[in-house]
Structure formats: C-alpha cells, structure tokens
Amino acid sequence: MKKKERIESVSEEPGTELKRIKKSPVKILPLGGLDRIGMNCTLFEYEDEIIVVDAGIAFPQEDMPGVDVIVPDFSYLEENREKVRALILTHGHEDHIGAVPYLLSKVMCDVYGTRLTLGIVEGKLDEFDLDTDGHLYEVSAGETVVFRHFEVEFIHVNHSMPDSAALCIRTPHGTVIMTGDFKIDHTPIGTTPIDLPRFAELGREGVRLLMADSTNVERPGYTPSDGTLTHSFDRIFAETSKRIIFSTFASNVHRIQQILDASDKWGRKVAVTGRSMQNVITAAYQLGYLDIPDGVMIDITDAKHFRPKELTILTTGTQGEPMSALHRMAFGSHSQISLGPEDLVILSASCIPGNERFVNRIINELYRKNVSVITDKTDDVHVSGHACREELKLMHSIICAENFVPVHGEYRHLAQHAQLAKDLGMTSSHILLPEIGRFILLDAAGIHQGSQVEMYPVMIDSGIGNGLQTAVLTERRKLAETGIIAAFCCLDVEREIIVRPELITKGFVFEKDNAELIRYLTDRAEDAVVECLEDGETDERVFEKRMKDALSSAAYEKTKRKPIIVTKMSFLSD
Amino acid sequence: MKKKERIESVSEEPGTELKRIKKSPVKILPLGGLDRIGMNCTLFEYEDEIIVVDAGIAFPQEDMPGVDVIVPDFSYLEENREKVRALILTHGHEDHIGAVPYLLSKVMCDVYGTRLTLGIVEGKLDEFDLDTDGHLYEVSAGETVVFRHFEVEFIHVNHSMPDSAALCIRTPHGTVIMTGDFKIDHTPIGTTPIDLPRFAELGREGVRLLMADSTNVERPGYTPSDGTLTHSFDRIFAETSKRIIFSTFASNVHRIQQILDASDKWGRKVAVTGRSMQNVITAAYQLGYLDIPDGVMIDITDAKHFRPKELTILTTGTQGEPMSALHRMAFGSHSQISLGPEDLVILSASCIPGNERFVNRIINELYRKNVSVITDKTDDVHVSGHACREELKLMHSIICAENFVPVHGEYRHLAQHAQLAKDLGMTSSHILLPEIGRFILLDAAGIHQGSQVEMYPVMIDSGIGNGLQTAVLTERRKLAETGIIAAFCCLDVEREIIVRPELITKGFVFEKDNAELIRYLTDRAEDAVVECLEDGETDERVFEKRMKDALSSAAYEKTKRKPIIVTKMSFLSD
I need a surface site. Which of A232, A475, A518, B148 has the fewest CB within 10 A? Predict the structure, then answer.
C-alpha cells in the first residue's frame, strides 16, 4: 500500500492557514451509530468538501426475517458525490467498516485507515470485487491527512481490536475530536497505552467539539485492563488438565495473543477452527499484529494426536451463532472435534443482548455432554473494549471541549452521557443529542441543531441485490404471523365458471386437519364469484377484490386470523 | 368454594396405613418445566392412580411466529384418563397454572390449590367457559389431601406471589417433597416467613426424594427479602416530587401492597391502568390478599386532577410488551396519561432474557421524552422470588433427603444444582437429572431412569383451535425468510395455453423494482409448461411439479434464495 505526500507529520503544526475562512458552519451529519445495533457513519461537510468517518453495518433483529445486514442510507452522499473527498476509518470492527464496500460501490473515494484496519477492509473489498486501486491510504497514529478544509490526525487508543484510532479533525471552525471506540488501558496487550498526552495537548490547544463513545456510560468505575486477564488465563491453564476450547471474537487479536502465550507457557499446542478466526489470525500475523510462538500452532486435523492437557482449540461462536465452529462442536456436527468430560470450554466474551437464547442453548448442550464451562459470569475471562464512567470523565476533563455530542450508544446511553457532561460542569446549551439524519452545525457561536435529511437505513437481503423494501419486510412478517391463502378462478367466454376457485394455503392451517375449514373458505370464494356474475361485473380485478374480501372475512370469522390473501381471476377470450 | 371431607388436618399423623403396600415403583413423569420458558407439569403415578402437579404454559420464542402459548403434551394423561385423580397447584403463576383449562378440557378432574391460586384459575376457566362445578377444592397451608395411594400436604413458602405452597407428597415408597417456586424470606410482605420448621420436621421423619427449584442456582448468597424494598421505595418517594409511574408484574401482589402503602404514607393517590393489573388488584382485594388504605385509590380518569407529587400510577409492561399500558404511555398512545419531564418511571422487575430489545425500546423512548427512569440495574427496586445458592443449601440441609431431582430450570441450572447437592455430600447414584417425557422411578432401592414417552409440547395458535403442527410453523418461518411465489396456468381442451403462467409474489422482492426478474421467472415457468406439452404430459400434477422446479431454480439462480413456490395448472374440459 503506497503512502501519499499529503500525509504529513503532525509536528509541522497544521491548521494554521485554515484559521482565516470562517463563514458558513461546519455541517456534521450522523448516518447511523445511534442505536444498539451499530452502523457507525458520520459525515463532515464544509462548502465543497465532505469527509466521511467510518461506514459500519448493523445486524438485523429478530423482526427482520431474511435480512443479512443493514447499511446506512448513503443517498445524501450520492447526491453530493462530487463533494465526497475521503472515507476515514477509526478501526476494523464490522459496525465501523462493514458497509465500506456498499459505500464505495455507490461513491468511490479515497479511504484512510491504519494498517490492520485497511488489511481487513481489503479482504472485504475482494469479496465484492470492487476495483479500489490507488484509493487505499495507510495512516499511522500521529500522522495527519490534509484536505482542503479539513485536516484529520489519527490518535492511538486502546480497544478490543489493535490499531484503533481516535480522530482529531481540524475544521474551519476549530478542532473536533472523535474518540471512536476506546478504553483507557495502562497495561494493554501487544500495544502501548492510549495516547492520553496527545489528548491533553489538544485540550490545551483548545477543542471546539468532543464526540465520545457512550457504550459503557451506565457502568461505574473503570474497565479492567486486558492485562488483568493474563493472570486469570494463567491460573485457569495451571489448574486444568482438560483440553481447552477457547472461544472469543475473531477480531480480538489481543485476546488471541494471550491464549497463544498461555498455551505456549503451559506446553499446549493451539489448533484453530472456524473460517473467520483462521482469516484474522493469518491477516494479523502477516501484518505483524500477532506474535506466534515457534511451533505452537498445529493443524486442526492433527488435534487427535494430542492428549487433552496438550491442546488448546481456538474458535469463535461466543454469541451462539448456529453456523459457528463452537456450535457445531457442542452439537456434535463438527468434522474433527467432538466434546466430552475431558473438555473445558471458555466463553471469553459478553453476551450481546438478544443472543442469550442462542448462547444458553450451547451452554445447556455442553452441560449435557458433561463439558466444563467457564463464562464471563463465572470467572474473569473477559473485559470490555469500551470506557466506563470514570474513564469517560477523565477524557472529558483532559480535553475540556467547548461543546459535546455523545455518540455510539442507544438513546438512553447518549442521554446519560450528556448528563455526565453536565455533572462535569458543562452547560446544556453546549451539549447536543444527535439524531440519525439530523445535521449538527458547528460555527463560531457553538453547536446547533440543523435541518433533517430523510434517511432510511437500507436492509440488505444479499439475494436481492438492491435494498429490501420495508413493504416486503412487512409482508414477510405478516406471512410468518398468519400464513397465506391463494385462490385461482377461471371463466370461459360465456362467463361460465370453468375452474372453480381453488385454494392453496401455506403457513395458515394444517390442511389435512382442516378440510372442513378449507371447504368452507372455498365455498365463500365461489359465492363471491357468483355474486359478481349476477351483478354483471366485467372487470377481473373486481372479481379478485371480492373473492379476496370474502376469503378474508370468512378466514377471520373461523380463525380470528387475517392471513395474506392473493386471488387471481382469468377470463378466457376466443 | 366448598371444602371436602377428605381434606384432613395434618396433626392426625397420616400415611400410616400406606406403609404396607410396596410392590411396583412410584412413577414420576415431567411433562415440562425443564427449560427457561416454563410450562411446569409433573405427574405422579402408582398403580391405578395418577395425580398431576401444576399445569403451566410456556411463552413462544421469536422463532414461533403466530404462536400464542405452548402447553404440555397431555396425551399420556388422555390415554390414562380413568387413572387421573387430581390436579394439585403450587401457586398462581402462568408457568404453573396457565394450561389448567387445556388440561381440564381434555381430562376433567378435581383441582386442589390455595385460595388465591384457585381464584386466579377460576378467572381463566370462565374465559374458556369450562364447567368445573364441584371440581375446585380450596386447601390451606398445613392441610393434607388424601387419595388412595398418595397424600399431599401443602406447606407455606415465600415467593413473588402470595399463597404459594411447597408439596409434601406421601407415596407408597415414602415421602417426596416438591419445593415449588420458593425463596426464604424472614421479613416478607403481607404474609409469614416460609414454614422452615415443617420442612425440618419432615426431614427428621425421613424424606425419600427432594425435587427443588433450580432457577437461581447460578446466583451466590441469598435473595434479598421483599421487606428490604420498603426502605428503597420510602427513600425514592421521599426524594421525588415527580409523578411516579410504577411498573411491575400484575401477579406481584406483595410489591403492589408496598406501593399502595408508600403512596398512602407520602400523600399520593394511586391510579391503576392496564387490564391485567386491574383484574389482579380486584381479585387479590376481594380474596383478602391486598390491604387498600382508605381513599388512596382513584380512577385513572381522575388522574388529571392531581399534581405530579400527589399521584402514583400503577401499571404493568416491565417486559416491554407492545400492548401494555406502559408501552402506550411511553409512545404517547395512552388515552389518559402522557409522560414528560415531570414523570418518574420505576421498572420494578428484572428483564427476562430475550426481552431486552423491547424493554430498551421503551427506556430509550422515555429518555427521549425527558422522563426519569429507575430500573433494577440503577437502584434497589426489585428482588427475585427464587432462592439463591445459600438458600438452596439450607433447604437441602434441613430436609436431608435420600435422593434428589433438580427441577425448574434450564439444563445448565439442573446440572449445577446437582453439583451443589454433591458438594453437600450426596453421591451421584442418588441424584437424577430429569428429562421431559422420561419416567423417574422411585422404589425401595432408590431412584432410577425409567422409559421414555414420546412427547411434543403443543403450540397453541388461538385462532386455529387445535395444536399448531410443526409443519405449519416451518412453513411460516420459511415464508418469513424468503417469501412466496404463486403461479398458475390454464390449458383449454385443445391443450393450448389460454392463461399464460402468471406470478403473484409476497415477501419475495419488491415487484415494482424487479419487473425484469419477475418477467424472467414467468418465462421460465412458461418454458416448463411448453416442455410438458412437447413431452405429451397429461397429468396436471406433472405440469405443476415442473413449473415449480423451473421457478425454484430460476429464483435461486437470480437471488440465491429459495422462496416457497405454489403452482396450479388447470385443464379445461368440454
């Protein structure tokens, strides 16, 4: 990946020549990232220039059947494509980079990020075979990218993924700091502590606006350091002679490093199963983010040659994903590994709300197989990647920004983060709660709510290339609730019924047990046709409408349900 | 409700004449209650007699669209209807009594329970208009019901519902104790502490088998007393001048009592909204389980006449139920109450796993309206109704049963409860992990796994009277995932196509945006018909099959999806 001359060292005291122009406000527009499900994406606009920070996906909820992912509504960027100068990425998590291919396929632009982040993005771009030659620019923490109106400095932070960065964005109306996802870790794994001194410097320089991670605002105190887990793992590895199946997020490279080291120390080989875990380890190793002790790695197919106490199996599936290797191992459908009393499964992650049911299924199954289980509830095997209240207060205090916009959380998190800022002495007029599609205006006077842009997150059903219409989703939900009844009927030239209305139902009732009900409905449909004939109707759509109404009310009368009903009437012509 | 002569006082030292007959084992069969979703129901069988303990429902999970409730498979009871002597109820929660009408409508028998439990059951029976005259028998804690082979004594326990009982079941093979749902509360609200002395007595007498609640086995220590909440509520009421909207489970009569008292003490009137809450308060008051301070209750329609600090609104909706009064208040669709900065909402319940999404939606909406919110995470406003580890240990120790079967929990809870019993010195051979539909045999030697009975929990779609077939449910899920394509075609007597295959789709793609796709699919369907004609096919079903196959592969080719496809071919005859 080549570097670009307009990336300068920060030492050159940037931003000076920008101080002059201060007419129109800087416009900040969140395209997502303001709910639990992620999809972080924020654009900064000034006159003829737009830069975009992150382009994440969200994962569908239970009431979005058949939806694979949700991506931000990029319409505004498409309408202003000539302004779009760059996409800046803070780190490589799906909720920050997952939508990059979707964005670039609509609006191609330069992409800036740290090495690991870009490494992961490149993998995605390949899947979409998008030609982005010469568009990816690697930036290191401490470096600044200079655009016409904006300058973006990358600042090193700690998070559950290496190479994560906060952004210092110098604008015509002064400095904006976006923390990105962060925690304050004085003893991190495989990296250095967050660059607090730089945040302090910028604070002293003067920061107009802080936009900070609100994920853990409800949690008191500090998030424990990744380093603390080293001791837990050491203890667990020392105490057990069972085979260890260690499950975590593939992207948590620090965690993986700790398990490689612990296994090496305690004379265990490590076998990896699960495609995503395999990919990340390969990528992280090649890019130099993973230090694999000599000879510790073995192929999963060789696992059988090792005794339980000689082996660690590294895998994903902490959220109970039915396709994950852990799920397959738990339910005995894994090709190489089957679990039993000689196994210890460690779930090194917290359960994302909504996934409990799936995770519990796996845990129950493991207990059925007499497998030992350790989770974050029963032992210290996981720490969060986000800052808790005291860390947030520290950030606010050293940056002491003039204005504050909480980001990255559900509304209740944003509201509590705003309250935290007030508790620290900031006045309400300097705090603004962001909304998706609502402009935030930054000018000499401060921050203000701007106009609203119509914005509908796009649901991707990878089968159906284009975004899935809400109408279709509603149909799917209704189909699932009540099922469907289809009725066909045919009239000949003399307007005689030659094909009586015949019903086909799906997901409505079990036809075999409900022959009488089906017959009743069929008769009602035919009655409707006969009535139409008596009324001398000549429009097929009238026949269809009245068959539909008849079926609908008959179905409701008998079942108190309103299934979807489709009717088709055909007139034969000579 | 009349009492029955065969209810005796326990003082008469019962069970003596049973000591002789000890041939065949006592058979214990769990019909449910061994997973998160509840549905407690266990039968005890000896020779020609069966008694059933509890008949609960389970609530459907996200992957059961259109299902209202799930009830146990009562087939075994139907096949042995002449043996079924009685249904014994431990308490009035839905997961213990919800299926009573379903059971009685299949197998009518006598029902025994405490006053409040029967009061609630009667309400349900009315909805189903089942004639149960002379079948309901009220039993008080301390009383024993005598059957031919079994004697059942009710023992007072503490739980999140008044009038809850454990059962001491004397069988031809000795005493079985079922704790039912319980906690140990030395300072309960509106009732006395659990009757520990009686459990101790029975323990000394000798208990063959203990079947105990495993819900909170993963929680260390003790469940706090309901009494502790009195102080929290007192503090909260003292500190706020806002209108209080207090939300809890309607069945938690103790909690409701505390709020009535706190409101009375702090000069607030109480208005109730929500049908279920209204019903429970009326029933509990009439049966003497609720002590309503004079003049504290007002009608919700009069709420507007009171200032915020003069009013408490009592409601349900703690699980985010979209139809609940709290949901309607939060989203501004409640007829009398609209919420704002002058309101404080207290969610006095824990969030049942799987409901987080719905609860969070409400909390976010409340924050949007600047409503203050207190949950069990932010303050002491809720305690569990189930015993934690130390209470379970206490129960095991004073009963010191010969054998143990953990009940009421997911498999991992049962397994951990079994481990707890081992930690207390019980040997594995005396512990048995129950399975739905698998007999547990109790005889002179101990407990053993018995034979397996085919058992399928019945999903009730109240529209479709009978149990919902899994086939239909699968169809519904598939419909939701991929949608449906319906195609039909018509041939005249000369086997000419007079109605070209026409497609109707639902939940598949947005037809307006996919005209080309639809056209492509239609052509493929017509090709199939033409090929059939060329092959001289004469069977309508062959045409339908081949249209279906053609559409299926064409749809997959274009969308990588496999929608449900229904085809209909009609041949016209003279």
Answer: B148
Could you tell me the pTM of the whole model? 0.81
User: Would you call A65 and B480 a contact, using CB atoms and an 8 Å cutoff?
Assistant: yes
Flag if A472 and B508 touch (Cβ within 8 Å): yes
Q: What number is the ipTM of this complex?
A: 0.77
Measure in Å the smallest separation between the Cα of B273 and chain A Cα atoms: 25
Between CA A519 and CA A387 the distance in angstroms is: 63
CATH 3.40.50.10710 residue ranges for chain B: 226-374
In the CATH hierarchy, which fold is given to the domain comprising A226-374? Rossmann fold (3.40.50)
Amino acid at B230: T
Query: Residues of CATH 3.60.15.10 domain(s) within chain A?
Result: 24-221+384-461
Show the tokens assigned to A522: 């069929």
Alpha carbons A212 and A166: distance in angstroms, whole number: 9
Whether the CB of A77 is below 8 Å from some CB of chain B: the reply is no
Element (H, E) at A58: none
CA distance A262 to chain B (A): 28
Task: Mark yes or no for CB contact B476/A507 under 8 Å.
Answer: yes
Nearest CA in chain A to B62: A62
Q: Which residues of A touch B464 (CB under 8 A)?
A: 509-510, 514, 559, 561
Would you call B243 helix, strand, or coil by DSSP?
Answer: strand
| pLDDT, greater one: B448 or A23 | B448
**Sequence-distant contacts of A139-144: CB under 8 A, at least 24 apart:** A139/A7, A139/A112, A139/A113, A139/A114, A140/A114, A140/A115, A141/A114, A141/A165, A141/A195, A142/A9, A142/A10, A142/A195, A142/A198, A143/A7, A143/A8, A143/A9, A143/A10, A144/A7, A144/A8, A144/A9, A144/A10, A144/A14
- Could you tell me the CA-to-CA distances from B565 to A547, A552, B119, B531 in Å, in that order? 21, 21, 50, 19
Distance from CA of B374 to the nearest CA of A (A): 12
CATH no., domain A24-221+384-461: 3.60.15.10
Chain B residues 365-424 with CB within 8 Å of chain A: 365-368, 373, 377-378, 410-412, 415-416
Tokens of A267: 């004379």
Q: Catalytic residues of A, which ones?
A: 213, 386
Q: Is A183 exposed, middle or buried (0-12, 13-18, 19+ CB in 10 A)?
A: buried
Reduced to 3 states (helix: H, G, I; strand: E, B; else coil), residue A291 is coil
- Contact call for B410 and A510, based on CB within 8 A: no
As given in the structure block, the two tokens for residue A197 are 């001194």
Residue B367 to residue A486, Cβ atoms within 8 A: no
Contact status of B353 with chain A (Cβ, < 8 Å): yes
pLDDT-derived band at A467 (thresholds 50, 70, 90) equals low
Least confident of A262-276, A555-569, B359-373: A555-569
List, by residue range, all CATH 3.10.20.580 domains of chain A: 469-571
In sequence order, the 6+-apart residues with CB closer than 8 A to the CB of A11 are none
CATH code reported for the domain at A469-571: 3.10.20.580
Three-state secondary structure call for residue B451: strand
Shortest CA distance from B559: residue in chain A: A463
Q: Which residues contact A246 (CB under 8 A, 6 or more apart)?
A: A259, A312, A313, A314, A315, A346, A348
> In whole angstroms, what is the distance from residue B409 CA to residue B417 CA?
9
- Written as six digits, the tokens of A186 are 């004085």
- CB spacing of B468 vs A510 below 8 angstroms: yes
Instruction: Determine whether the interchain pair A561/B353 forms a contact, defined as Cβ–Cβ distance below 8 Å.
Output: no
At residue A468, the pLDDT reads 63
Burial per residue of A501-538, b for 16 or more beta-carbon CB atoms within 10 angstroms, e otherwise = bbbbbbbbbbbeebeebbeebbebbbebbeebeeeebe
Mutation target for B interface from A506, A522, A571: give the one with most B CBs within 10 A: A506
Q: Which of B410, B416, B478 sits opposite A360 (nearest CB)?
A: B410
